[in-house]
Automatic annotation (TrEMBL):
A family per Pfam: OPT
Location(s) in or outside the cell: Membrane
Tree of life domain: Eukaryota
Annotated signal sequence range: none
Organism encoding this protein: Acer saccharum (Sugar maple)
Molecular function in Gene Ontology: oligopeptide transmembrane transporter activity
Similarity comment: family membership: Belongs to the oligopeptide OPT transporter (TC 2.A.67.1) family.
Bilayer topology term: Multi-pass membrane protein
Protein's name in the database: Oligopeptide transporter
GO biological process: protein transport
Primary localization: membrane
UniProt keywords, alphabetically: Membrane, Peptide transport, Protein transport, Transmembrane, Transmembrane helix, Transport
TM region(s), chain numbering: 113-131, 215-233, 239-262, 305-325, 377-400, 437-458, 464-485, 549-571, 622-640, 661-687
Length: 758
């Protein structure tokens, strides 16, 4: 019965049938949805209203679309009277994925090679450009897809179809091989969005130049990055409004009513600060602030919003206040929440006293004569939550999903007599697989470039060759369980803390080596899982694996080169970039993400976990979070078994709760309160009272807001702010929240410049 509701989609050959339908008033949503379908279930699915995302088709159109394109393939393997044997054994796939294919649809077309690289380069530049701002901006893939549909159909309507011969060869190609189709759009999106995320290895260039004051060879940096990388109304309104918080009135990004009334009280400003305190009475009217760190709240189900809210409240309003006001580890000698590191006197930690500047290695004698390293209480327990999330994710997977995974494994690999080939596997047999030697060649080339980058260029990366091999080994060990985890639970766990911790113990006292090892590990893991996810998408969209591989590699190379070049240019063009105290008023180039990366290199690389945690550190008890994270999901599992009638117990997801506070240190309470408020407004109030409006416009509004803010920020940044023009000089130009005293210590007798002594 349920399946019949989705029959309109099962015969979807390409977008042309829908685009030509008079009733298809939501054309772009079909394309944007498929790209995210198998990695993130949209909020509409959580609410059980998925069919409303798609246009209603005429009966004739529906019948035509339901007719399999490859009938022989569709019938292959069918048992008499068994309709379901022709489809996937996975219910979500049966409900949503077409069981048809048209292998004649072109994919790697002239349009793909023109639009793909250009869009990828633009996105890579924009992503790297905004990485250094106070609030980062990311253009969603759905916005990219909408633009690519328009551009692709424009090229299909205007370019000539006559074959073009390549001079001096027998080769020829067509600039317009036919209507712009869904397979082209998927490949274009994969290629283009390869540039949407800045390569983590690029931060090595910035941290070494800005904070360690050391030159890094451009080609060494490029080799390292290549190694690790392998609506109109809404948009216009969003663009126009974004000029106000983005240029003329940045302060509305984190307005604090409490701080405006109590300008001389440390306690009041600590309570009211949305960036450095509890954020009571603080709210943001800047869409960039609301969506920059926690992503667009209009696209999340209420269950995710609740999980994030629980984690946020647990960390900021329960654990941190208890530790702070009881002065655990002298917490009140330092700010409640700060990105900075401190010494025992409450002043900023002078890294130069514990570092040999000549080779950027740890100075043990200087450290013994100076001070232990201290953190703000929010910084400290944010790391604790990261510790707990690692073991909680694995524990949750074992408790709730291991049995299902093992059963599916036995069915797939041990039961040889079972007919496990569904229609999608059979349809994909007509396409050639990617040869194994292609992957081996990429791996060997990547390892070679990594070793050359580390061992060559005067050993600027500090990491010996065995670090490259160790990073590959770690990824190989964790890749399968992490891949199964993402595929079965939709949750992701990265290897950031594991890589930092491991290299901190094995090869301490070398901050750049720690950064490089972390970049190699998490980027390799991230790209491997992305490749898996994209090949899974290609499998369901019936795209030739070789075409997908070519698009992925091309996009990765383009985005790597453009990202390094953009970072290199910004570091030279913006004076005092990432040094907030030296920047002019209103400058957005404060780089909070870079500051955290630098701090982590000091914590894990310079001083090292042995002197901060176990065995000689002041924060050794923080390692108990590993144990807490491992036990908590098991308790939830036990409760769900003991009270089987309480179905809501199984919905308690400890990894999601712990991950909910993952960006609190950088984003601040104002981001969370604003994000939660907007999420509840649209996904509860508007969804329940105005469901038709929500179904038709919620995602269009979400994409329009993101796109308008991105265009406005790029325009003002590239034309005005990059040239030192930051707007009218008035109190609203401050990018902070007007709560400077929230950064002050509250312990008696601690004297810090700019702060009253308690």
């Amino acid at each position: 019965m349920i399946r019949r509701r989705y029959n309109k989609l099962e015969g979807l050959k390409d977008l042309d049938g829908i685009w030509k339908s008079d009733k298809s008033n939501m054309k772009s949503i079909v394309v944007s949805y498929f790209n995210n379908l198998f990695s993130n279930i949209p909020s509409s699915y959580a609410y059980g209203d998925l069919p409303n995302l798609f246009p209603t088709l005429d009966e004739g159109v529906a019948e035509d679309l339901n007719k399999p394109v490859c009938e022989d393939e569709a019938k292959d393997g069918l048992s008499d009277g068994d309709a379901t044997s022709n489809d996937s054994p996975i219910e979500q796939v049966r409900l949503m994925v077409p069981i048809t294919d048209d292998p004649t649809l072109p994919t790697l077309t002239f349009r793909t090679w023109v639009l793909g690289p250009i869009t990828c380069a633009i996105l890579a530049f924009v992503s790297q450009f905004f990485l250094y701002r106070q609030n980062t901006i990311r253009i969603p893939s759905t916005c990219v897809q909408m633009l690519l549909i328009a551009l692709g159909k424009l090229m299909a309507a205007t370019l000539p179809s006559k074959p073009v011969k390549v001079p001096g060869t027998r080769w020829s190609f067509s600039m317009n091989p036919g209507p712009f189709n869904i397979k082209e759009n998927v490949l274009l999106t994969i290629l283009a969005t390869s540039g949407s995320d800045s390569p983590y290895a690029v931060t090595i260039l910035s941290v070494k130049k800005i904070y360690y004051k050391k030159y890094l060879n451009f080609w060494a940096g490029l080799l390292m990055v290549l190694t690790t990388q392998f609506f109109l109304i809404t948009v216009t309104a969003s663009f126009a409004y974004a000029v106000v918080p983005g240029y003329f009135f940045p302060s509305i990004g984190a307005l604090s009513i409490v701080c405006l009334f109590w300008k001389n009280s440390v306690t009041a400003q600590l309570i009211g600060s949305g960036l450095s305190g509890f954020g009571i009475g603080s709210f943001s009217f800047d869409w960039n602030v609301i969506s920059s760190y926690l992503a667009n709240p209009l696209g999340f189900p209420m269950s995710t919003i609740i999980s994030n809210a629980i984690g946020f409240v647990l960390l900021l309003y329960i654990i941190c206040p208890i530790a702070y006001w009881t002065n655990s580890n002298n917490a009140r000698h330092f700010p409640f929440s700060s990105l900075e590191l401190f010494d025992k006197s409450g002043h900023l930690y002078d890294v130069s006293k514990v570092l040999n500047h000549s080779d950027l290695t740890f100075n043990k004698k200087g450290y013994e004569n100076y001070s232990h390293l201290y953190m703000s209480v929010v910084y400290l327990f944010s790391i604790g939550f990261e510790f707990a999330s690692i073991t909680a994710t694995l524990s949750h997977f074992v408790a709730f999903h291991a049995r299902d995974v093992w059963r599916q494994f036995k069915q797939a690999y041990l039961n040889k007599n079972a007919n496990i080939e569904d229609i999608h596997n059979r349809l994909m047999k007509k396409y050639d697989l990617v040869p194994q030697w292609w992957f081996f060649a990429i791996a060997v080339l990547g390892i070679f470039m990594g070793i050359l980058s580390c061992e060559g260029f005067g050993n600027q990366m500090q990491l010996p060759y065995w670090g490259i091999l160790l990073a590959c080994l770690i990824v190989m060990i964790f890749l399968l369980p992490l891949g199964v985890l993402r595929a079965t639970t939709g949750q992701s766990m990265d290897l950031v803390v594991i890589s930092e911790l491991l290299m901190g113990y094995i090869y301490p006292g070398r901050p750049i080596a720690n950064l490089v090892f972390k970049a190699l590990t998490i980027s390799t893991q991230s790209h491997a899982l992305s490749f898996f996810s994209e090949f899974k998408l290609a499998h369901y969209m019936k795209i030739a694996p070789r075409s997908m591989f070519v698009a992925q590699v091309t996009g990765t190379i383009i985005s790597s080169i453009v990202s390094v070049a953009a970072s290199w240019w910004l570091l030279s063009a913006v004076e005092n970039i990432c040094v907030p105290e030296k920047l002019p008023k209103g400058s957005p180039w404060t780089c909070p993400g870079m500051t955290v990366t630098y701090d982590n290199s000091v914590i894990w690389g310079v001083v090292g976990p042995m002197r901060i945690y176990y065995p000689d550190g002041v924060y050794s008890k923080l390692l108990y979070f590993f144990l807490i994270g491992g036990i908590a999901p098991l308790l939830i599992w036990a409760l769900s078994k003991y009270f089987p009638e309480k179905k809501w117990i199984k919905s308690i997801n400890i990894p999601n709760i712990l991950g909910g506070a993952s960006v609190l240190l950088i984003a601040g309470a104002v981001n969370y309160w604003s994000w939660i408020t907007v999420g509840v407004l649209f996904n509860v109030i508007i969804y329940n009272k105005y469901k038709d409006w929500w179904t038709k416009y919620n995602y269009v509004l979400a994409n329009g807001l993101d796109l308008g803010v991105a265009f406005q920020s790029l325009l003002t940044s590239a034309t005005l702010q990059i040239n030192g023009i930051y707007g009218v000089n008035w109190w609203g130009l401050d990018v902070g929240d007007h709560c400077p005293l929230a950064q002050c210590p509250t312990a008696p007798g601690v004297s810090v410049e700019g702060c009253p002594t308690v």
